[in-house]
Amino acid sequence: MGAGHDHGTQALRAGAKHRSRLWWAAGLLAGFMVVEAVAASLTGSLALLSDAGHMFTDVLGIGMALAAITAAGRAGTDSHRTFGLYRLEVLAALANAALLTLVAGYVVVQAVLRFSEPPEVPAGPMLVVATGGLIVNLVAFALLRGGAKESINVRGAYLEVVGDLLGSAGVILAALIIAFTGWAAADPIVAVVVALMILPRTFALGRSAVRILVQAAPEHVDITAVRERLAAVPGVCDVHDLHVWTLTSGMDVASAHLRLDAGAELGDVLSVAREALHDDFDIEHATLQVEPVGAGGRCTPAGW
């Protein structure tokens, strides 16, 4: 239990670090979202509108991330939630993926409707606002990049900012094309391209969240290798009822039944098995049930 508790404490400390960065990113994006929405309304630019929409999902997603981190930090006071509220982080990440998919779909539909008669869009204001959006997104990108490697929820907000970076770059490109060629269709075309570019990342995030929610084994963990490693622990003659899953990002959990040879020292077996899971598979929290074989008995594998 000690390793699992230490790992949970480390996760909460990491959450506190991420919370400060998330607040800064949310404030910057929320402020510029308003600027971009007003500019989109005044210029009629669909590309600006799509970028403002992406910023809205960023702010909402970061808000959910902050709520999840705060809830997880308070979970230890609730005796009815024995695993805490770590899964809130995963739910928030899944919601972020769904929101970003909806925004991308809306932009594509609106762009298709505009292809036949694209409205005139003033390139100057469009270029200025898009450049400002690019700068804001670069700052948010830098704030969230480190946390994205440690938390699936922060990674959700990070991917949305990546989408916004592409969006801002696309709007700049569209503004330049309109300024130099007068081709108004560049606005809806760029909006569609940006929407389609961010969908694969969004689907990957959603897939990762769903895998955790259905308690699938982590992709980086070879279950056969885990079973063989536990079976190789001195004193163990059979491993069954093995389960490995992810509680939340960076927190893999395992449970297993170990049948012991006659005369095996229970304490030694548990100690070696836990060390093996920690050292070889980075599994901090494991619940291991031992089933000693009676003196003179024979070790027989379980039927399931």
Automatic annotation (TrEMBL):
<dbReference type="GO" id="GO:0005886">
    <property type="term" value="C:plasma membrane"/>
</dbReference>
<feature type="transmembrane region" description="Helical">
    <location>
        <begin position="22"/>
        <end position="49"/>
    </location>
</feature>
<dbReference type="InterPro" id="IPR036837">
    <property type="entry name" value="Cation_efflux_CTD_sf"/>
</dbReference>
<keyword id="KW-0813">Transport</keyword>
<keyword id="KW-0812">Transmembrane</keyword>
<dbReference type="InterPro" id="IPR002524">
    <property type="entry name" value="Cation_efflux"/>
</dbReference>
<dbReference type="Pfam" id="PF01545">
    <property type="entry name" value="Cation_efflux"/>
</dbReference>
<dbReference type="Pfam" id="PF16916">
    <property type="entry name" value="ZT_dimer"/>
</dbReference>
<keyword id="KW-0406">Ion transport</keyword>
<feature type="transmembrane region" description="Helical">
    <location>
        <begin position="125"/>
        <end position="144"/>
    </location>
</feature>
<dbReference type="InterPro" id="IPR050681">
    <property type="entry name" value="CDF/SLC30A"/>
</dbReference>
<feature type="transmembrane region" description="Helical">
    <location>
        <begin position="88"/>
        <end position="113"/>
    </location>
</feature>
<comment type="similarity">
    <text>Belongs to the cation diffusion facilitator (CDF) transporter (TC 2.A.4) family. SLC30A subfamily.</text>
</comment>
<dbReference type="InterPro" id="IPR058533">
    <property type="entry name" value="Cation_efflux_TM"/>
</dbReference>
<feature type="transmembrane region" description="Helical">
    <location>
        <begin position="189"/>
        <end position="206"/>
    </location>
</feature>
<keyword id="KW-0472">Membrane</keyword>
<feature type="domain" description="Cation efflux protein transmembrane">
    <location>
        <begin position="25"/>
        <end position="214"/>
    </location>
</feature>
<dbReference type="GO" id="GO:0005385">
    <property type="term" value="F:zinc ion transmembrane transporter activity"/>
</dbReference>
<protein>
    <submittedName>
        <fullName>Cation efflux system protein</fullName>
    </submittedName>
</protein>
<feature type="domain" description="Cation efflux protein cytoplasmic">
    <location>
        <begin position="218"/>
        <end position="292"/>
    </location>
</feature>
<dbReference type="InterPro" id="IPR027470">
    <property type="entry name" value="Cation_efflux_CTD"/>
</dbReference>
<feature type="transmembrane region" description="Helical">
    <location>
        <begin position="165"/>
        <end position="183"/>
    </location>
</feature>
<feature type="transmembrane region" description="Helical">
    <location>
        <begin position="55"/>
        <end position="76"/>
    </location>
</feature>
<dbReference type="InterPro" id="IPR027469">
    <property type="entry name" value="Cation_efflux_TMD_sf"/>
</dbReference>
<keyword id="KW-1133">Transmembrane helix</keyword>
